[in-house]
Design brief:
mainly alpha
């Protein structure tokens, strides 16, 4: 009977060692996964900042492009200003006479 008891204890020790080894592996895998998560979260933060900056640049470029007049618009504006100056000169000459 003592023989069976000693054998059972040895099997339990072996199984306990195997469980401890598996637990240690699980802990190491968990820690590695946490490190990877932290690294990926930092990368996501960097990418989010970069996206915000690029969106601002696109918005600025859109504003600049739409605010910059074309050649035809500049010609029309100059013609209109020239016409207004002529009218103002005509009014001034009317007031002086």
């Amino acid at each position: 009977m003592a023989f069976d008891f000693e054998r059972a204890i040895e099997r339990l020790r072996g199984k306990a060692a195997m469980i401890a080894k598996r637990y240690q592996q699980a802990v190491e895998q968990r820690d590695a996964a946490r490190d990877e998560i932290s690294r990926l979260e930092e990368e996501i933060s960097r990418k989010d900042r970069e996206i915000r900056e690029l969106k601002m640049k696109v918005e600025y470029l859109s504003v600049v492009t739409s605010a910059r007049p074309g050649i035809e618009e500049m010609r029309r504006s100059r013609a209109m200003l020239s016409e207004l100056v002529r009218e103002i000169d005509h009014c001034i000459s009317d007031l002086q006479s």
